[in-house]
Amino acid sequence: MPRPPCRQAKLDSLSLLGACAASYGPRPLAPHASTIWAGLRAELAAPSAEGLLPADLPTADDTAAAATACLARCVAAFQEGRGGDDGAAGVEVAAAGGAAGAAADLAEAVLGDPSMHDMLACIRAPGAAGAAFRRSALRARAGSRGAAALCLAGGAAGGAALAQLLPPLLAALRGGQAAAGESGSAASLPTQCLGWAAVLELLEAAGTAPGQAARHASEANAALLQRSVSMAAAALAAQAAASGAGSEDDEEDEEEEGEAEAAPKAARWPLAPADCTSQQAATQQLGVLAAAFGAGHLAATLERQQVEAAAAGAVQLLTVSGVQSQRQQAAAVAALTALAGGAHATVLTESALPRLVAAAGQRQSAGVALAALQALAAANSSLQLQIVAALDNAIEQLLPAAAAEGGVEAGAPGKGSAELLVQLLQAAARIVAAAPAAQPAGSPDAATSAAAAAEAALQLGQHLFDATQLLPPAAASTASPDLQDGCAQLACQAMRAAAAAQQQRLAAAAAAALQQPQGLQTCVACALLVPLHADAVAVLPGGSLAALVQQLVTLALAQQQETPLARWAAAAAAALLNKWPARALRLAEVVAVVAVLLLLVRAVAAMLPLSSLRSHALEQRACLLAAAPCLKS
Fold first, then answer.
1. What is the C-alpha separation between 81 and 99, in angstroms, rounded?
2. How far apart (Å, rounded) are the C-alpha atoms in residues 255 and 631?
3. What is the mean pLDDT of the chain?
4. Cα torsion at 575, 578, 582, 586 (round to 10°)?
5. How far from chain centre, in Å, is Cα 541?
6. pTM for the full model?
7. How remote is the C-alpha of 18 from its chain's centroid?
8. Is the pLDDT of residue 629 over 50?
C-alpha cells in the first residue's frame, strides 16, 4: 500500500537531513542546532500527542523512528567534526568558530529537554487507569527515543545520556522490585515493564554505536552497565523461583497468553496495565542481557561473575518447570546466543551448557532446552562440538529404556522415554546437519573446525551404532517406528558429515551387521550406508558389494508394509547402485532388474490393482527405479 504523499515527504526530509549532516559536517548546520532539535522533537513526541487515534499510531511510530535515526546521525556527525574521535577534522572545525560546540549544544538540548524528566516521571508513576497508563507509556517512549539517539551516536553524547538516565531508571526499578517483594503483589509491574523497556532501548542503541565512539561511551559508564546486568540477573532468578512455585492452572493461563503475544519490537512498550505481566518484565530483562552480551564493547565492561550470574538466571528461567510464553523463551535463547558469540563464551561451557543438557533430558523442559542448544550450536563452532558430544552421551544413556518401551502398553508407568529420545535424536540430527559456525575468511581455524566437526559426527555415528548393537534382540525388534526412524536419521546425518576415509571402517561394520537383521539395529546399519562417498564405495570388493545390494533389496521387499526399515534398506540399495564403480556397471543393472521383478511378482501375488501397484512401487521403491538408468526406457 503506497504511503500518503505528506508522510513520504516527511520521511524523505528526515533522511536528507541526516545525510547532509554526515556529508557536510557541523559547519553549515551548527547555527541551526536549536531549530533542528525543535523540529525533531516534534516528530519524536508525535506518537504521544493528545487526540491521536490508535489507527494512526503505527504511522506516527514510523516517523518517530526516522526522526530518531536522523538525530543520531546529526549528533554523530557533529561529534566527528569537533574532533572527539577524528583529531584532524576536529582541529579544522574548531578553528571555524561556533561549529565547535554544535554537538554539545545539541546533546545538551536533548538531555535538558522536559521530555527526559517526563519520561522518568511517567515510569515512576504510570497510573492505574487504562487511558492514563497509555498516555504515560507513550510519553515515556518518546523521551527514551531522544536519549536512544544520543546513545546511538556514541562518544561524549552517548556517555552523557547513559550517565544521566541510567541511575534514575535503575533506582526506579530497584524501588519497584522492592515494593513488589514486600507486598507480594503485582503493583509495581507497570513501573518494571516501562523501566526495563527504557533501559533496553538505551543499551541496544549503545550497543550499535560505531567504533571508537561506542567504546568511549561504554567505558565511561562501566559501573552503570554492570549494575544494569546484575539487576536484570537478580530479577530473572526471582522470576524463575516464582514460576517454579506457580500452580498448574496459572501455567496453563500463561501459556495461552504467551501463544497470543505478538513479536514486533514495539510490543516491548506495554500500552495497557493488563500487558504489564511478570513475563513481560522478564522478557525485557532478557533483552537487556542480550544487548549487553551481544555488543563487544559492552560485554568487555562486565566481570565474569556478573556474566555467570546472568547466564544462570537465563538458564533457570528457561528450564524452570513453569510454562513460559514463546516471546520469553525466544528472549532467553537470544541472550544465551549472544553470550555464545562473545568474549564470555566459556561461561556457557562451564556452567550453562551442562544445565541445558540436563534439562533436555526432562520431558517438561526438553523442547525449550533443545531449541536453546540448537541456537547455541549455530552461533559458536566450539560449542557445536561440545553440544554434539553431550547429546551423544544423553542418547546412549536413554536408548535402552526407550527401545524397551516398544513392548510396553500405552499409558503404563514410565512410558515416555521413547518420545523424549526421539526429540533428542531429531535435535542432534539438525545440529550435525547444520554447517559449522562461520569462521573469519582465511582463518586457520576454519579447516581445523571442519575437521573437528567431521570427527565428532563420525564418533556420534559410531556410538549410536554400537549402542544399538548392544540392545537385547527383543528390545531392538519391538522398538517403535518413530524411534527407528529417528535413530536412522541421526546415523545418516552423522555419516554424511564424516570424510570418505573415515567412513570405510564404520561402513564395513554396518554391512556386517546386516547378516542378522534385528529391527532397530538393522535400520541404523542401513542408514549408515546411504550417505557413503563414492570413494568409500569404490574400495569395496565388487563381489561383496553385489551381495550387499542384493541383501538390502531382500530386506526392503521382505517388509509386509511401509516401515522405516523398508525405506532405509531401499534408500541404501539405491545409493550404492548410484555410486557403483564403472567397472561393475553391468552387474548393477542386473541387480536393479532383479529387484524390480521381485517387486512386481510380490505385487501381483497380493492381487493389487494396477493403480495400487504403481503407487506402491513409486512410494516404497522409487529410489531403486531411479538407480538404474537402463530401466527408464
1. 8
2. 55
3. 78
4. 100
5. 46
6. 0.77
7. 33
8. no
